[in-house]
Specification:
It is a single chain. The chain folds into 2 domains: 159 residues, 3-Layer(aba) Sandwich (Rossmann fold), CATH 3.40.50.2020; 125 residues, Rossmann fold (3-Layer(aba) Sandwich), CATH 3.40.50.2020. It is 32% helix and 28% strand. The protein has a 5-stranded parallel beta sheet with strand order 1-4-5-6-7, sandwiched between helices. The chain has a 5-stranded parallel beta sheet with strand order 8-11-12-13-14, with helices on both faces. A hairpin with a 2-residue loop joins strand 9 and strand 10. It is globular.
Length: 308
């Protein structure tokens, strides 16, 4: 581990510290020099020549901060390249632009592809991400990709805590594959859901496969944004006389009216999420959260990379 250096951008330094604790290494130091014209520069304060460098920077659900952090990441990668790092591995636990994987309107580009191309042109040699919203995002990489999943962590958090009559549902068809994997690890039955998105704040559940009377229902999805999909589905499950509802989700964005949406769900018992995104004190105090850290998952992959 002496040949690696880990640095964090400003998006999620707490997670970077947790990764370093798992590995028994110190988080590297970066100096930021800002100018009155809005420009800023990053300076590595330790020698990184011929070192394997890991750069931690997640996506945040705020357009201004997200794009400032992305530019910060470009600078980190480019500086590491200029100072002869042996390998430059980006760790982006949550990737907002993984959703941008296709053209659906005339005149637009594919921004997921643009993000990857710019990182690779800056000097990135590898990328670690967790549970992309779209697996199609993987095809944009020519550098080494490590697409991890938090399914095992979430399953471990649930084992020994779920009643025998538990049933699991995906939030929609897109979450079905990972939901079936989680159901298999827990040894519980799962159903299917078909939905139609009307707008960012409205969805319609077309079909639900499953029986929920007096059952504890887990609803699985890859991310929580405003909570519209999960609330709509939970309300349908409540109508079918479920005993309790638990949300199990990898990425917790928690934006817009999410607190109100979830507080309106009478049978909601718990929300199990990971720390791929920092969670505010307000959200922690307002909702029944159980947060699982991905720091060990990322640390183990770093160890494997170092063996290559």
């Amino acid at each position: 581990m002496k040949e690696i250096k880990i640095f964090s951008g400003k998006s999620h330094p707490i997670l970077a510290e947790r990764i370093c604790q798992e590995l028994g290494v110190l988080l590297g130091s970066l100096k930021t020099k800002e100018y009155k014209n809005g420009c800023f520069e990053l300076i590595f304060e330790k020698d990184i020549s011929q070192k394997t460098v890991f750069l931690v920077q997640t996506s945040l659900p705020n357009s201004y901060n997200l794009h400032k952090h992305i530019w910060e990441l470009f600078e980190m990668v480019n500086s590491a390249k200029n100072y002869n790092a042996k390998k430059i591995i980006v760790i982006m636990p949550y990737v907002s632009y993984a959703r941008s994987d296709k053209i659906y309107a005339q005149g637009m580009g594919i921004n997921g592809e643009l993000l990857v191309r710019l990182l690779e042109r800056s000097g990135m040699t590898g990328f670690i991400g967790i549970d992309f919203h779209s697996d199609k995002f993987e095809r944009f990489f020519s550098s080494k990709l490590y697409h991890l999943s938090a399914i095992d962590l979430l399953a471990e958090a649930l084992k020994g805590r779920i009643p025998q009559n538990t049933f699991i549902l995906p939030a929609d068809m897109g979450a079905s594959k990972k939901c079936s994997i989680l159901a298999g690890k827990l040894g519980i039955p799962f159903g299917l859901v078909e939905k139609e998105r009307i707008s960012d704040t409205k969805v319609e559940v077309k079909k639900i496969q499953g029986e929920f009377i007096d059952k504890d229902v887990i609803i699985f999805d890859d991310e929580i944004s405003t909570g519209t999909t999960l609330k709509t589905l939970a309300k349908e499950v409540e109508k079918r006389r479920a005993k309790s509802i638990t949300f199990v989700v990898t990425h917790g964005l928690f934006v817009g009216d999410v607190v109100k949406n979830f507080q309106d769900i009478k049978k909601l018992r718990e929300i199990i999420i990971t720390d791929t995104i920092p969670i505010s004190k307000e959200i922690k105090e307002s909702l029944p959260l159980k947060v699982i850290s991905v720091s060990n998952l990322l640390a183990e992959r770093i160890k494997e990379i170092c063996k290559d």
